[in-house]
Amino acid sequence: MPAGSGIAWELGAGTRLRVVDVEGGQTGDVFAVAADNPADGLSNGRTFDYGDSVHLSTGSVLYSRRSRPLLRIVADDAGHHDFLYAPCSQEMYEIGYGVTDAHPNCLDNLTSSLATFGVPAATVTIAFNVFMRVDIAPDGRLTVLPPTVRAGQAVTFVAERDVVVAVTACPAAKANGGRVRALGVEISAG
Amino acid sequence: MPAGSGIAWELGAGTRLRVVDVEGGQTGDVFAVAADNPADGLSNGRTFDYGDSVHLSTGSVLYSRRSRPLLRIVADDAGHHDFLYAPCSQEMYEIGYGVTDAHPNCLDNLTSSLATFGVPAATVTIAFNVFMRVDIAPDGRLTVLPPTVRAGQAVTFVAERDVVVAVTACPAAKANGGRVRALGVEISAG
């Protein structure tokens, strides 16, 4: 998947989705929705409700708003991902970086790729930020750190039910150590 | 506001909303949406994007999905609130507590009270959990602790624009030290 782009796929239950950092140091966003209900998308709050942790890695289940398992992490070379920050958006580039022109962004990439499968934009409120490294200080302060994921490292999800899933290669320089790269995606039967 | 219930109001920009813990030890959920766009509701991810902290107290701004300030905390006796966990829902009581009958829950209270103002249920993905005390361990593990908020303590928000806001008194025993109580709400001009 080229830098700054987004693609969506329908995955049957048990299908594996492997997101590979091809060059190293690149983050991405993953969003999923239950195939039988385009309003029942990924929820960070529900995932925290049932997993009781903000640290998600191998074994973690990502839940939907209606408390249904959508994806499970079954392998993870990186060990650090983020589920706190919202996907970067046009407004975020305007407010955070003073951008005035249209800027590629994860929110538009996710919503436009999912729209082709009938998923309304209102469903996409948050995304799972693969390879994004965020430190939480004891006082709650968040710091985005450059990713330490290396070329060839990957995170693998299995679909816990029929889902539509979108992946983007994040175009935010800040979360990617200053340079935006491609991500690889491999889809395989379980 | 009685234990386990929810109410919504339209608040003009500058209006103050004070949520009071009448008896002590009770948590609640607050959700807001921009009056000019019923899809532009509160977002924990956007709030973290701009505030770079999961600890929200006096001075913190609560942002919408479209990156617009909705509420600002202007006074806070409690000093601990949660914006990680999703509002309790029927599914949560079924999965987490083995409940089989209908159980009062914050998600239904928020969505039904907001529906009377034309806010679609899809907008309510998350809520700001006032007085809820959550410990984040260095490894990311979350622990819900009994609230330490005392009778008469309050948190005060000011509306940063015209909003519709809903407040519930949470009916989850776990988050409330085992007993569910009422909350007080005071609305006043800025």
Distance between the termini of chain A: 22 Å
Low-confidence stretches of chain A: none
Rg of chain A is: 15 Å
Taking all residues together, what is the mean pLDDT of chain A?
93
Q: Pairing-aware structural class of the strands and helices of chain A?
A: alpha+beta
Q: What is the spatial order of strands in the main beta sheet of chain A?
A: 4-5-9-2-11
**Looking at the chains present, what oligomeric state does this protein adopt?**
homodimer
Q: How much beta of chain A, percentage-wise?
A: 25-35%
Q: Compute the number of structural domains of chain A.
A: 1
**For the report, how would you describe the main beta sheet of chain A?**
5 strands, antiparallel
Q: How would the global form of chain A be characterised?
A: globular
Number of helices of chain A: 3
Give, in order, the helices and strands of chain A. Answer: EEEHEEHHEEEEEE
Helix content of chain A: 10-25%
Count of β-strands of chain A: 11
Largest interface, chains and sizes: A-B, 36 and 36 residues
Task: Outline the structure in words.
The structure is a homodimer of 190-residue chains. Chain A is globular. The longest helix of chain A is centred in the middle third of the chain and has 10 residues, at 106-115. In chain A, strand 7 (133-136) and strand 8 form a beta hairpin. In chain A, the strands form three sheets. In chain A, strands 4-5-9-2-11 form a five-stranded antiparallel sheet. A four-stranded antiparallel sheet of chain A has the order 1-10-3-6, with helices on one face. The first copy, chain A, contains three helices and eleven strands, in the order βββαββααββββββ. Helix content of chain A is 14%, strand content 31%. Chain A has one domain (6-188). The first copy, chain A, is of the alpha+beta class and 190 residues long. Chain A has helices spanning 44-51, 90-97, 106-115, and strands at 6-11, 16-20, 28-34, 61-63, 69-76, 128-130, 133-136, 142-145, 154-159, 163-169, 184-188. At the A-B interface, helix 1 and helix 2 of A face helix 1 and helix 2 of B. Chains A, B: It holds the Pfam family DUF1989. Chains A, B: It comes from Virgisporangium aurantiacum. Chains A, B: Residues 2-164 form the DUF1989 domain.
